[in-house]
Amino acid sequence: MLTLEDCIALSDLTEDEILAIAEHEHIPEIAAAEMGCYLVHSPQGVPLLKRMILEDIARAKARGDLERALRLRLVLAHFIRMHPDYVASVSKQKKRA
Description:
This protein is an all-alpha fold. Helices cover 80% and strands 0% of the residues. It has six helices and no strands. The radius of gyration is 14 Å and the shape is globular.
């Protein structure tokens, strides 16, 4: 039987990234790990995951939870560092426009 830790390790995401998905989607962490694994390996998934984290940051700020917002900003920075191909492709698209 797989544990939550096993699923997180197989997802190619960090535990904090999985927690951000769970928070955003209001689903259990195990379901967020599965969803995150699917999204991080799909063409449109990386921008969707980035948007989820950005929306979580906005919600944390709106409720005055600045500590959570800062933590999520660190999660976002790590996520972007780990997925540079997506960031590079977006930069190229903006330059062409």
